Amino acid sequence: MNPRERVATLREEVARHNRLYYESAQPEISDFAFDALLRELADLEKAHPDLADANSPSAVVGGRPLEAFAPVRHIVPMQSLDNTYSEAELRDFVARVRKLCEGREPGFTIEPKIDGVAISLFYEHSRLVWAATRGDGVTGDDVTQNVLTIPGIPRGLPDKAPGRLEVRGEIYLPKATFAQLNAERDEEGLPAFANPRNAAAGSLKQLDPAIVARRGLNAVLYGVGEWSGSPLSTGCEFLQVLREWGFPASEAVRFASGEDAVAEAVEELGRVRHSFVYETDGAVVKLDNLALRRTLGSTAKSPRWAIAYKYAPERAETVLRDITVQVGRTGTLTPVAELEPVFVSGSTVSRATLHNEEEILRKDLRIGDTVVVEKAGEVIPAVVDVRKDLRNGSERFFSMPATCPACGAVVEKSGVAWKCHNPSCAAQLRRRIEYFASKNAMDIDGMGEALVGQLVEAGLLASIPDVYRLQAGMLLPLERMGGKSVANLLEAIDKSRARPLWRLLNALGIPHVGITSARDLALRFQTLDALAAASVDDLLAIHSIGDVMAAAIHGWFREPANQLLVADLRAAGLNLGDSDAPGAAPANSALAGSVWVLTGTLSRPREEVAEQIRRHGGKVTGSVSKKTTHLLAGEEAGGKLDKARELGVPVLSEADFLRLTGDADSNA
Length: 668
Description:
By secondary structure, the protein is of the alpha+beta class. The protein folds into five domains: 3-59, Helix Hairpins (Orthogonal Bundle), CATH 1.10.287.610; 71-180 and 193-310, D-amino Acid Aminotransferase, Chain A, domain 1, CATH 3.30.470; 316-411, CATH 2.40.50.140; 426-571, 5' to 3' exonuclease, C-terminal subdomain (DNA polymerase, domain 1, Orthogonal Bundle); 589-661, BRCT domain (Rossmann fold, 3-Layer(aba) Sandwich), CATH 3.40.50.10190. It contains 24 helices and 22 strands. Strands 12, 13, 14, 15, 16, 17 and 18 form a seven-stranded antiparallel β-sheet that branches. β4 (117-124) and β5 (127-133) form a beta hairpin. α1 (3-23) packs antiparallel against α2 (31-47), α3 crosses α9 and α16 (501-507) crosses α17 (515-525). The longest helix is centred in the N-terminal third of the chain and has 21 residues, at 3-23. 37% of the residues are buried.
């Protein structure tokens, strides 16, 4: 293929992948593979100037705006960054900037390259006017209503803020939330998101803000477009201003001068990146001096004063020994890759979900293949590629079973998912009880996967209410269940009867109801009976509840089997909301309006303490800022404690906290 033909092919391929990535949030290839295609195209165009084209994907930012949202024209265009995987090219960038600075030794900020969705927030007279995606760099999508559901995005700024201000940053989905979201999508037979970036993009492009609110998006702001105020000197100064005005700005910023120091800072950031709550695929190196940034300017696509150094993806090759099928709590059959154990991204991986039959066919996976594994969002093991060149003919095709591997019932296909509709299926029962007892639901300590499996297999659990019928004599004959273990388990079960209503609502497995919506429902309706009697319109009055969820909740309470379940739990003495502290008023006015951050090792689970704070009218956030009113510090408190002391935030011990609330115990 001659250069002209290859350039034409690459432009078509890159444009197609751009559409999949930016507009559909459904990429077919990894960022690494896409960058390789784009680099090949740019190199060919550079080597053959006669083939250059201003409309080439190598010179164009992002994708076109979507038709579902109103267009917004950026006051200052949103460019993309040049990127490299080469330390030599990184050093060349630093040297090139020094040369452009005409002998002045430039300083650089080094910060995580968050793998999210670029966003621009425009404020006028201190009020948020619009929020828009990057789009094609000139025009983006108006996603203001969706962005307003994201905690930490200020609707207003201090009076001293510039009259016109564009703040740029990244909308992201936390890695833990990403893992939970994909697990829920597997259960519902929906295609999994490839990574947190695509999950964030798919969430932000929802037409219903209520759905966005449930997704748990977050943001980090780090850049500026329009700025009508007094000039600032450095990027570091700008980040400090953002924090003072209440924006969630990155705390993981390094400063360095010179090639060696910048390369070392980039490497150090790479070593700690797995500890961040968001996925990061690289480091962004920026000239710190803002006046020099303006002097250096930009190309048509990228600023000359910044570069993204991208870390090579952490991958490993191993053998796909088998594909098994697990049955979820809603009856969805999910294929699972059984792998030869391999170490990747900090832990040993031996299993990876394959989500559904279509994914296996699309990737042409066969049992016995050598496969490439990485962790999606640095959390979920995923098979990302197949080494077809290593096949020897012994590999075997996989097909989904015609009957449920757990109960033998005939399975049916619904969308992309195969489902078992047998309500007595033991596997579904196990998963429902595991979820019911889990930390984010009824939090029954000791009732994990192994024990639930034993109890179901022994015929001691045939339904969720059976959990509350367990007695010592039933448990003692079980494996690894001595007298002390049995006593502890029965005590944990008994304590769970008093859990607040939101935990029960989350535990019941009502379609589409998670922790956030369970809290909203409990706060609005106060009791399970009031919720059960609610109409669809009553449910839609809650901001976080949309049409689909409202119909699902309303329908769930009208199923005879679910009505029987509620009656059995009532008979077992569970709190159906009547024992909750009133949701509309705090139990102790000392915490009303307060903003708390928890740090260090506490004597109780953090979520339990956080729920106690919420019950008394307080709010819990993840990072210390000027809005923080209290820091609750346990043992081995780290950077948050230092930050609180720096800002003069009161620091309380657990004993101080209990005295303040007047609570000696909590069933949160």
